[in-house]
Amino acid sequence: MGRSLKKGPFVDTPLLEKIEAMNRTAEKKVIKTWSRRSTVIPEMVGHTLAVHNGKKFIPVYVTENMVGHKLGEFAPTRIFKGHTTKVAERAAAAASAPPAGGGPGGGSGAPAAKS
User: Fold this and answer.
1) What is the model's pTM?
2) What angle do CA 42, 74, 40 make, to 5 degrees?
3) What is the dihedral of CA 107, 95, 89, 81, to 10 degrees?
4) DSSP string covering 38-98, please?
């Protein structure tokens, strides 16, 4: 369920005050924020916000297309490293298999003669 239109978008008060102060003085500095839940509003367009992802701050340059979204959407908290491939699975299986020639046929590596 969304937020009531009567209330307007949620933006943390300290973050909003910093944005408004920078707009009054027309300066552009990176603002660090932990507020991933804050909504991007038109006053933020053109600023760079460093959004915390739980480990480090991700710089996010705010554009017009971002208005209405949450800041946390632009600083992912998980890194996808890809699915395993069949080649990697075969290499892992080969590494765990016993070396050739180590069985009961002697240690020579040549096939045992049939009797």
Assistant:
1) 0.69
2) 20
3) -170
4) PBP-GGGTT-EEEEE-SSSEEEEE--GGGTTSBGGGGS-SS----PPPHHHHHHHHHHHSP
